[in-house]
Amino acid sequence: MHKLPVFSTLVQAMAVFGLHLGKLVKWALIPLFAGLGPVGLTIGLAAWQDALGKGFNLWLVPVAVAVIFAIQTMIPFAIRVNQLAVLGRVEKTGYLEMIFSGQSFRYLGYGCIVALIMAGGIVLAIAPAVVLGSGVLQLGASRSMLPWAVGVSVILSIWFFILTIPFNLVYPAVAVEREPSLMKAYHLGSGNKARLFFCVLLATVLFGALTLAAEMLPNLFLRDPESPWRLVFLPVQLFLSLFNHVTSQTVPAVAYRILSGLPDPAAPERPAGHPGQEQAPGAGPRPRADAPGQGDAGPAPERGNSSRED
Fold first, then answer.
1. What pLDDT sits at residue 232?
2. What positions belong to coiled-coil segments (predicted)?
3. Is 235 exposed, middle or buried (0-12, 13-18, 19+ CB in 10 A)?
4. Is 115 exposed, middle or buried (0-12, 13-18, 19+ CB in 10 A)?
5. CA–CA separation, 267 and 159 (whole Å)
6. CA-closest candidate to residue 220, choices 210, 230, 228
7. Per-residue confidence (pLDDT) for residue 49, from 0 to 100
8. Interatomic CA distance for residues 86 and 9, integer angstroms
9. Is the dihedral of CA 293, 299, 302, 308 positive or negative?
10. Could you tell me the CA-to-CA distances from 113 to 27, 56, 71, 86, 247 in Å, in that order?
């Protein structure tokens, strides 16, 4: 079993952003315009018809469809980020072609499953504090017990998050494996739950501090909160937002690569005959039919064989 190095994992995850900044910015423009554009248009039409804030009406249907489409346009970006972190390259399939591919729908499906698992655990964890705080039990000492219930809920939430964090390895698995499995991804990270948790925690704390500093930076130079010069600092905040978004995806991807025993794509190539890392059974990228020595590997992936990367 491979032991996950916490700081090295975080550094490698952040390095992906710097090594592929140009590609990432170019790819991010596609969901920005193709995805969020229709959302803004449909919301504007609904507001023009005075249909917002009045319960369900037919004008909200296009808004819901546009939101779903916007989410779907973001999935190829996430898949490519995971592929860069694991393999150092992306598959030769066009971005628009990936939006409604089977791989994108698998990514979305596994994401919904993981979200439901974590949401269910959080609901169970905060139940003691919610029940005592609402006074449902009508206990005379409920107010004095509330701080204890909150403490128990916090501990249970952290424990459940650590317990389920290996499920996040399914995202890079979907990006690089032909037949990903939720339980196989969980088993891959089950021996490093605490280390995975600290990787995510350190990334969250780091970018939380950077985001706070970026928001406070204009106040050091501008006293007027409505000054138009504050727009000068907007690129810094957008840069940090993209950096944070990419790193939140590359941390599990780099952890997947390390635990799978795959080499670092950013490391110098080893001489021929040099012993490499041993790959974990059942893990790693799916074989490609057009790879050298893989003539019998089976049919090519279903997402097409376009030679484009954008």
1. 82
2. none
3. exposed
4. exposed
5. 35
6. 230
7. 76
8. 12
9. positive
10. 26, 27, 16, 23, 22
What phi and psi values does residue 94 have, to the nearest 5 degrees?
-65, 150
User: What global pTM score does this model have?
Assistant: 0.81
Spatial contact of 27 and 80, defined as CB atoms under 8 Å apart: yes
* Residues 24, 28, 29, 34, Cα dihedral to 10°: 150
User: Could you give the CA distance from residue 282 to residue 188 in angstroms, rounded to a whole number?
Assistant: 9
Please report, for the chain, the start and end positions of each structural domain, with discontinuous segments joined by +.
Answer: 6-259
* End-to-end CA separation in angstroms for the chain: 37
Query: Among all chains, which residue has been given the structure tokens 């919904």?
Result: 112
Q: What is the pLDDT of residues 236-281, one digit of tens each?
A: 889 999 999 999 999 999 999 999 999 998 877 665 555 544 444 4
Q: Which residues of 275-310 are buried (b: 16+ CB within 10 A; e: fewer)?
A: eeeeebeebbbeeeeeeeeeeeeeeebebeeeeeee
Report the C-alpha gap between 184 and 178 in whole angstroms. 13
CB 256 within 8 A of CB 250: no
Smallest CA-to-CA distance from 256 within 172, 194, 165, 187 is with 172
Q: How far apart are CA 283 and CA 184, in angstroms?
A: 8
Indicate the residue type of 116.
L
Cα separation, 240 vs 246, in Å, equals 10
Nearest to 72 by CA among 31, 25, 29, 114: 31
Q: Which has the closest alpha carbon to 164: 131, 208, 115?
A: 115
Any residues with CB less than 8 A from the CB of 162 and at least 6 apart, and which?
193, 194, 197
DSSP state of 296: T
Exposed / middle / buried, residue 50 (Cβ in 10 Å: 0-12, 13-18, 19+): exposed
Burial (Cβ within 10 Å: 0-12, 13-18, ≥19) of residue 183: exposed
Q: Quick check: helix, strand or coil at residue 265? A: coil
